[in-house]
Predict the 3D structure of the following.
Amino acid sequence: MTTIAKPHVEQPVKETTGVKAESKAKPYVHPYLGGILLGLVLFSTFFLTGNGLGASGGMNRIIVWFEDMVASGHVDRTAYLTNMAGGTANPLDSWVVFVTIGLFFGGAFSGLVHHRTGKFETERGPHTPVKVRWVFAFIGGALMGFGARMARGCTSGQALSGGSVLSVGSWAFMFAVFGGGYALAYFVRKLWN
Amino acid sequence: MPPFPLPISELLGHNSQYIVYLIIGFAFGYVLEISAFANAPVLAAQFYLKDMTVLKVMFGAIVTAMVLIFLSTAVGLLDYSLVYVNPTYLWPGIIGGLIMGFGFILGGFCPGTSLVSAAVAKLDGVIFVLGVLFGIFAFGETVQYFEDFWYSSYLGRFTLPELFGVSTGWVVVGIVLMALFMFWGAEQLEHIFGHKDLSKEPKWRYGAAAVLLAGAFLVLILGQPSTEQKWSQMEETEAPRLANREVQISPAELLSTSYDDTLKLILLDIRSEADYNQFHLREAQHVTPEQLPELAVALHDEPANAIVVVMGNDEAAATEAWRTLRAEGTQNLYILEGGVNNWITTFADDDFKTTNSITGATDDSLAFTFPTALGAGYAFAAPNEKAAEGLNFTPKIQLELKRGPGGGGCG
């Protein structure tokens, strides 16, 4: 937390306050404003299309698309995969893939216009070596990916989307995510503090 | 019928609809980035109670969207039955959630935020994305070994108002109050653990909280539309279709449709169970009028080529059922013309008809007696395709545009 611009409301950027590496970086918006804006995006999505938001679903289909290219027969024989890419079905032919692609470019655009795009540096806790951070980033990512498919959705597709339309399973899921995070947080506190 | 959600794949074409999703995704990524979600230390600080950005943004988004969604459904702009509600698979969801919680604190992101982090060229984000892709790959390759668990504790489209047995309005008010309490608590924790000066927090957040709470109470006061209210909203366009007999299909059309392999036929018999046991069409399922609203929700999951036909002894009860299902958004919905009585008249042999017909049967009651209650055991419960030959009818079945979420589940 030492080198990070803390999120606060849009104010004139003070070049000297605590932001070392990215002196031109604009501050993040206030979390409540971010929440309201995210809520408006989420509402518009449901209102216009009937679908919610998603991210890991798109990544899933991109992975299956690669698998289908290199091992089509294997995909056709695996029940879970063949639902998405069996025979001539194109796993990329799904709305969630395009939300995921848009997500990437929206993030990239915002990073550029707010001067927050990095130079492939690694953000980490103040006492965490870079390589340790990489290892844990990969392990954490793998658990996230596996867990998201197990739960049929990630923070976007289950917690945000299902939560706002009052799905029981999505609320149970949401508390499980926070529960898992808090349960393990103490044991890995050196990673982040 | 409420105009939203839009049938965007029909409006724009299958491929062009994806432009809408690209724009939505773009806005999604933009908002995540400006909310600091590309920044792993900010996200992880949530779990050390120093910086509750994750909770504030997530719950802020959920309650904002929730209030707007249920205001839209309350005023008849949005059809909730066409909104995708994640089906509940309770235990896979909870175990998956716990695994994700572990991944969150170890890696510092969730899948969506790691993509944004990679998009702003943070190496830890890129590595996390690679990890996510590996985890997804590993799941796809191993799910066959625990498929029973993955499909277990399925509760379908199961919502909090159903769980608690209270109206949607109360749930919305309750969640908003809970969220406001959590925001207050989060600020106290940030003050204690993050040494944040709360006097510098903006005053507009009180106004925002008041607007949110007012919206929630408005949802409560307005209430969600009942089946009758939904019908009265669409009566202007739908009642003439009944009156002009556009939806009453003849037994001959029903029979020939049942032999059309490109269509999926769903037959709903809404008569009494006694009548149903005496005789019913083969493949017809018995439903009571009380089951219809719930059934309408299930029918949304049927493919676009599903044809639903309701039938009574005659047409009165079937027309009532048609109105209910229609109000709840069932598409490709028809009534068997003249009901089961007309079906028997059309397809039963003359011997049966002369011996068993009841003269002066009352309206909408069975006009035939049955020597034994064979159900679908009678030959005319499923006549041969040829039986429809020589019977003239005006085809009325036309497939409607499929609306609603495009094939569900994200992740």
About this structure: The two ends of chain A are 8 Å apart (CA to CA). Chain A touches chain B through 131 residues (CB under 8 Å).
